[in-house]
Design brief:
The protein has nine helices and 13 strands. The chain has 302 residues and is an alpha/beta fold. The protein has two domains: 112 residues, ATPase, nucleotide binding domain (Nucleotidyltransferase, domain 5); 154 residues, ATPase, nucleotide binding domain (Nucleotidyltransferase, domain 5, 2-Layer Sandwich). The strands form three sheets. The chain has a six-stranded mixed β-sheet with strand order 12-11-8-9-10-13, sandwiched between helices. Strand 2 and strand 3 form a beta hairpin. The protein binds zinc ion.
Length: 302
Amino acid sequence: METLFAAVDLGGTKIAAALGNAAGQLLHTETVPTPPGAGPEAILSTIANLVDSLSSRAGQRPVALGIGVPGLIDLRTGQVNFVPNLPTQWRGVPAGPFLERRLQMPVRLLNDARCATLGELLYGHGPQYPSFVMFTLGTGIGGGIVIDGRLRLGPLSAAGEIGHSTVLPNGPICGCGNPGCLEAISSGPAIARAAGYPDTESAASAARSGDPRAQQAFRDAAFYLGIAAANLVTALHPDALLFSGGMSELVDLLLMPVRAAVNERVRMFPADGVAVRRAGAGPNAGLLGALALNVAPDKIAL
Ligand SMILES: [Zn+2]
């Protein structure tokens, strides 16, 4: 019988779960709404029930569970330290040990953007690029850094929070408390607000039809994204900058200006060989990353 791994992508509105194999094929999937207003215990129980339900469908238990969580998670302890987009506080929740007791299998949890980076490393464009930086562009701006084939996590699994690099001194206050973070200027909600539209989709179509305020909002967002990207290229000289998440589809409004900014601002060495492109793992990047947590833990540098 083929070895199966369980993968969960925990989001503010839905929880996606899958059983997949080491090749990155998701064989059984199920998605449920995130229980509204629920605390950690109810959400973790929902996750455990999803794994049970998928196991019955597959007629076999997975060997381990990986979970991508939208917050700060210590991979080594399985402790959730901060989840800004879920309704209740998760500070210091021992989610890993709780689920290991409940499911009787090893459980690994990691920040969702770092998970997506690991998924990209295994199942997306990663094999082409030994070193790359991943930007996840959406409600927030997350990231992950791969150096010489391994995901760099740092001592608290928090390395790669590129959305929280300062790009505008004394800029708007970010959710993290720092003024002028990239996320406070170039995230989806920040762009929509600056453009005067309820969401990025309508702001993008307005910009493309010539609305000057929407065009300016995207120019500003791309300008600061370009500064962050160029600084990362100068610091790491990666093979690629990869972009995932809903807003990464806005190639004309965001990715092309970032390409131009990297070429213009990196002066110390030629940067035109650094690829700037959309990630390759596709819409299941979150689940593939959660799968990769247990398929290839050796690709994580702790
Ligand atoms: Zn911040």
